[in-house]
Amino acid sequence: KVVNAADSLSLGISMVVAVLIGVAIGIGLPKFTGAWWTLWIGVFIGTGAAILNVYKAYVKQKASLDELANEPRYNYKTNEELQKKYDEEDDE
């Protein structure tokens, strides 16, 4: 549980690092190609990597929430059935 929380906290850092690496690639590309506009390729690569990191975090968080929803203590139907059982016992 603690590791999952730490993983979620690192999302912001990973986004910044992805964009910075993309910009660094973009700065390096004009030196190899001689075209100034290749900087934008690096920026788009970094931005795409940051968006991919957010998507991966979303999928992981959604799976965690789905797993939590399937636990019996959080399942509404199960709680409703238990409540009926307890109500019937109280009536007796």
Describe the structure.
The two termini are 43 Å apart. Helix 2 runs antiparallel to helix 3. The chain has one domain (2-91). The protein has 4 helices and no strands. The protein is mostly helical and 92 residues long.
Please summarize what this structure is:
This protein is mostly helical. Helix content is about 85%, strand content about 0%.
Number of domains: 1
Order of helices and strands: HHHH
End-to-end C-alpha gap: 43 Å
Determine the oligomeric state from the structure: single chain
* Total beta strand runs: 0
What is the strand content? Answer: under 5%
- Tally of helical segments: 4
Average pLDDT rating: 82
Class based on secondary structure composition and strand pairing: mainly alpha
Taking pLDDT < 50 over at least 5 consecutive residues as the criterion, the unreliable ranges are: none
Q: What's the Cα radius of gyration?
A: 24 Å
Helical content, roughly?
over 70%
Largest sheet: none
Shape designation:
rod-shaped
List the helices and strands and how they pair.
Elements: H1 2-9, H2 11-33, H3 38-69, H4 76-91
Which features would summarize this protein structure in a list?
92 residues; mainly alpha; 86% helix; rod-shaped
